[in-house]
């Protein structure tokens, strides 16, 4: 499977560096060996980063977890203090090094948009809401956003940029394309028939994380915002593999489950799993107003998080998965039954124990 993922990564890289921005590359089968050896160029610095950013890339044994707290009325709680919470790693209480609100970190976001048949009726509303989201959330001097579309394979419509105009152009040109001789995609049996008839959600998210977000500076908040019905039909990547990779890459996934509900349902369970296990959330809008509200919630959440830092009591650098649990210990706050959102674990660095 890992060799398949490598092949997927390289194929995605070729799309990234070589495909015309105004067309969608067609499936042409496996690439010849000489093409497979091509690699992506070194990414340009993320807007907002400067030379001092490299100073931040130092070895540290601190574990950093982003935390969001929401009350029963779905309002963000912004008054938590360090003494209000307890952090456990593999069931062992940890001593906190820092607990503070993080409201000003640069954002590295990717809009990952499904343009398969199920999105034909809803795509215009998605495009409008996405443009409005960029207008509200982007700070051109600090943040960068990419636009990735997918059917049976992903295509970078716009690489990470702080240029809102370029992003709006990329969003505007998104459209659902189906084979003219099979507009309902009823006769396509394999991915080789026509990738436009398929939906590779987990491949698209894996490739977006690996080829776009993973190359951003360490001190940015990485997030992928997925708009899809959640039904994957052709990915080589397994859902759990994607989740593990996103966690390792410190990438949060927000999922917006959307489709033409009269003809296409949404896989709520799959979308909740990939989002909540990476520290994000899933939304299931039923109207244009709900869709706008989902984007607004994501915006608020990105600006209303706490950074929880601690030095793990388990000092082994064995690459193992460490389960993280955060609890409210303040008796008054416990009565409010706050909902805490955070990634539920991380992989320890491999190396000398």
Draw up the topology in text.
Elements: H1 2-18, H2 33-36, E1 63-70, E2 85-89, E3 92-94, E4 96-102, E5 107-114, H3 123-137, E6 144-150, E7 154-161, H4 164-172, H5 201-211, E8 221-228, H6 239-248, E9 251-257, H7 268-276, E10 282-283, H8 288-303, E11 305-310, E12 321-328, H9 331-335, E13 339-341, E14 345-347
Parallel strand pairs: 5-6, 5-8, 8-9, 9-10
Antiparallel strand pairs: 1-11, 1-13, 2-3, 2-12, 4-11, 6-7, 12-14
Helix pairs in contact: 1-5, 3-4, 3-8, 5-6
Rg computed from alpha carbons, rounded to a whole number of angstroms: 20 Å
Question: Largest sheet at a glance?
Answer: 6 strands, mixed
* Overall residue-averaged pLDDT value: 80
List the helices and strands in order.
Answer: HHEEEEEHEEHHEHEHEHEEHEE
Order of strands, widest sheet: 7-6-5-8-9-10
Helix-strand category: alpha/beta
The termini sit apart by: 29 Å
Strand content: 15-25%
Please tell me about this protein's structure:
The model is unreliable at 1-7 and 9-59 (pLDDT under 50). Helix 3 packs antiparallel against helix 4 (164-172) and helix 3 (123-137) runs parallel beside helix 8. It contains 9 helices and 14 strands. The strands form 3 sheets. Strands 7-6-5-8-9-10 form a 6-stranded mixed sheet, sandwiched between helices. The two termini are 29 Å apart. Strand 6 and strand 7 form a beta hairpin. Helices cover 27% and strands 24% of the residues. With 353 residues, the protein is α/β, with parallel strands linked by helices. The chain has helices at residues 2-18, 33-36, 123-137, 164-172, 201-211, 239-248, 268-276, 288-303, 331-335; strands at residues 63-70, 85-89, 92-94, 96-102, 107-114, 144-150, 154-161, 221-228, 251-257, 282-283, 305-310, 321-328, 339-341, 345-347.
């Amino acid at each position: 499977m890992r060799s398949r993922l490598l092949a997927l990564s390289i194929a995605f890289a070729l799309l990234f560096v070589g495909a015309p921005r105004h067309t969608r590359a067609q499936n042409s089968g496996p690439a010849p060996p000489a093409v497979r050896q091509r690699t992506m160029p070194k990414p340009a610095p993320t807007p907002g980063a400067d030379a001092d950013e490299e100073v931040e890339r130092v070895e540290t044994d601190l574990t950093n977890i982003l935390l969001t707290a929401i009350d029963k009325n779905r309002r963000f709680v912004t008054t938590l203090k360090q003494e209000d919470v307890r952090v456990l790693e593999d069931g062992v209480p940890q001593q906190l090094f820092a607990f503070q609100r993080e409201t000003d970190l640069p954002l590295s976001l990717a809009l990952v948009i499904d343009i398969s048949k199920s999105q034909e009726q809803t795509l215009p509303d998605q495009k409008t809401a996405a443009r409005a989201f960029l207008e509200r959330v982007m700070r051109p001097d600090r943040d960068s956003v990419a636009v990735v579309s997918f059917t049976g394979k992903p295509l970078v419509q716009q690489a990470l940029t702080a240029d809102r105009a370029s992003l709006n152009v990329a969003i505007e040109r998104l459209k659902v394309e189906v084979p003219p001789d099979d507009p309902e995609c009823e006769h396509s049996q394999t991915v080789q028939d026509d990738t436009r008839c398929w939906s590779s959600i987990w491949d698209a998210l894996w490739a977006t994380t690996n080829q776009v977000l993973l190359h951003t500076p360490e001190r940015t908040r990485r997030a992928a915002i997925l708009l899809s019905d959640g039904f994957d039909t052709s990915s080589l990547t397994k859902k759990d593999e994607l989740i593990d990779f996103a966690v390792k890459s410190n990438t949060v996934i927000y999922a917006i489950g959307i489709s033409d509900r009269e003809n296409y349902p949404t896989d709520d369970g799959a979308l909740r799993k990939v989002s909540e296990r990476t520290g994000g959330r899933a939304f299931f809008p039923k109207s244009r107003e709900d869709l706008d509200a989902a984007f607004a919630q994501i915006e608020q959440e990105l600006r209303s998080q706490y950074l929880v830092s601690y030095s793990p009591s388990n000092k082994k650098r064995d690459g193992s998965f460490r389960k993280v649990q955060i609890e409210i210990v303040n008796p008054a706050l416990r009565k409010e039954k706050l909902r805490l959102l955070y990634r539920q674990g991380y992989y320890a660095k491999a190396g000398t124990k």
